[in-house]
Structures are given as C-alpha cells and as structure tokens.
Design a protein that fits this description.
Elements (H helix, E strand, L loop, with lengths): L1 E8 L6 H12 L3 E8 L8 H8 L1 E3 L4 H15 L1 H15 L3 H24 L3 E5 L3 H11 L5 E5 L3 H4 L6 H7 L2 E4 L2 H8 L10 E3 L21 E5 L8 H14 L4 E5 L5 H10 L6 E5 L3 H10 L2 E4 L8 H8 L4 E4 L14 E4 L4 H12 L3 H18 L2 H14 L1
Parallel strand pairs: 1-2, 1-4, 2-3, 4-5, 5-6, 6-7, 8-9, 8-11, 9-10, 11-12, 12-13
Length: 399
Amino acid sequence: MTIAYVLNTYPLPSHSFIRREVQALERQGVSVLRLAMRRATAPLVDARDRAEAERTEYVLDRGALGLGAALLRRFLAAPGRGFAALRLALRCGGASPAGRLRHLIYLGEAAHVAECCRAAGVTHLHAHFGTNSATVAMLAEALGGPGYSFTVHGPEEFDAPAALSLPEKLARARFAVGVSQFGRSQLCRWTAFAGWDRLRVVHCGIEPAAFADPVPVPGGPLRLVAVGRFVEQKGQMILLQAMARLVRTHPQAHLDLVGDGEMRGDLERAISGLGLGGNVTLTGWLDQEGVRAALDAAQALVMPSFAEGLPMVVMEAMAAARPVVATYVAGTPELVRPGKTGWLVPAGDVAALADALAELAETGQERLDQMGLSGRARVLERHDIDSEAAKLAGYFENG
C-alpha cells in the first residue's frame, strides 16, 4: 500500500508527532510519500527533522508556472473533473476575492499533488489538520486523485469550522480522525449523523523505546518545565502569574519555559516585571533529547493552555514518569487523572494554578513517584505509536 501525506509546513519542531506516525506506518510496511506545501522557515534543530526534510517533496518549490502547468494538464485530461474542482475551490473560497484567490492557489497545489500521486502509485491521501492541507487533499481528489482522509487536532479547526469548509471536507472524505474522543465529538457537530461511522479516533503516539528507563522524580526545591510555542493559547502568561504567587512561599521554585514564538518579548518583560528573573529560564527550542533532559530534571510538567488538541508533551512527560499539571481543555482530561497522574485546573485561573503548584511542591517524594509511574502506565497503554499506526493503516486499507 502506498499513501501520500499532505502537509502544510513539514517538518516542524512542534509537529514531531507527524514524523513519528509516518515512520511507524513505514514500519508497518506502508510506503509513504511526503508532500508538503512549504519548508520550515526556521532552522531545524533536530537531526530527525532534517532527515525528514530531505525525504519530502515541496509543492511550492514548483513555482506558479509549474503549478499552473500541472493544473492545465489536469483540465486537458479530464475537463469535467477540472471544472467541478474549480467550482468546489471557488465555493470553499467564499465571497471574498482574497479567499477565492487563495483557493485557486490550493487548486494548483492540488493538481501537482494529484500528478505526484499518479506517478508514485498512491492509493490514498491523508492530511494532518483540517486547514489548507485538507483543502489540497480534497481538491486533489476532485481533480482525479485518490480518495482522502484527514486528522483534526484542534483547536484551530474547532474555532472556525465554517470558514475552513470543514463540513464539506468531512462529507467528501473516506474517513476523518480525531486525536481524542473530544476531537471526534467536535467532528460529529459538523457531520450528518449518517456519516458518524466514518469518524475515527487515532491517538498521537509516543515511541516507548525512547522512554525505556525513566529517571526517578528528583528531590530538592520544586523544578517545573513547560513546553510549547510562545503564543496566547498556550497560557504561559498565566503560568508566570501563578509562579509569582508560588515563589512567595516557595522562593526556590524554578520553571524552564521550553520553546519560542511571537510572544517571547512579552514573556521576557513579564518575567522582569514580576521579579522572576531568578526563577524562570527561557531555553528556546530544544531537540527531542533536550526536551527529555528538561523533563528528567523537573518534578512535573505544567501545561497551562487555553485551547489544545491532545498535547504531545503531556504524553511524553507521562512516559517519562512525571506528574502533570494541566488545564481542563479538549482531550487533556482523557489522559491526565486528577489525584492519580497529576492535577487539572480551570484554564485561565491563576489562583487555581498557583494552588496546584503549591500542592505539588508540598507533595512527598514517594507520592510523586507513584503518580509518575501511574501516568507512565496509562500513556504506554493508550499511546504506543506502533499500535496507533497499525489502527490507522487498517483505516487506509478498509476505509
């Protein structure tokens, strides 16, 4: 079986779960053609991401003339399909000229994707995220390419389903995937009841071998780690405010913020303004080994997000036998069990987050170890990437 993965920007440090899924499918014997619209703009830190980039075909590298020529060839080969795909693109583009122009570009990308699939003998297209990558997969199918499916992560798709033509994509897809039961429930909102049996759950996965020997939870003053892009929805600003409360009673508490992004300057100013210069470190992006080292050095992971799908870093922290402090959002409560594997708090509640961190700081070593091991057992049972990839491969074969 040969399939093609249709992606927007790939690989990215924050999308290592896609790389793991693709490679797990290949271990299942599935041939995977990687088709990304564009390259990452920032240098890739992880050598595995750089290796993936070498194996990826970048559609926009063809340029406007190349994509236009591919679209012309599709129209000449099958005019009826071409005009139907054009009408679909214009309909999904909405009333605005900018939206329609953007979807005409997607149509050109889709024509190249369809040609790549034909040349490689691809039998199925799969896109990650219900955004432009799923649009390209849908238009490629309309132009005569193979049938498609897509994985929805959230929260972006759930914020603007109509603008993303999510109902259209769901109706035309062979099947669609949520990464949690919560994610699948949101797809049910935009799918006719008769189509609910085409909505699946396939978890993002971790590689158990990468977490074979978890390091015991360290003792000493509280050390926390948070991992994610520096954007509003990740809630790092709330976490800093909670840290400012925490250090009044636990002055040696320390937080490593792993990541980078548009809010870095805001976070730096907040750290200074709150007097947290000695309590918070901004590490920048770290490769997989660096993230693992940061988890091993911490007593717990903190995930203060306002909106999520099902965060990979929560899975990785639990696999590393670390308790998790997270917010009650999306699929997170399906993984984090209050009092058993960590703490859950309302999103945006500084006081509740600070209280949970204080309770964590005062929890005994034996209890933290127990919570960490319970979390590890739970995530290894639910999120083994080879098991999830086998499930996905079955859907590719049987719909």
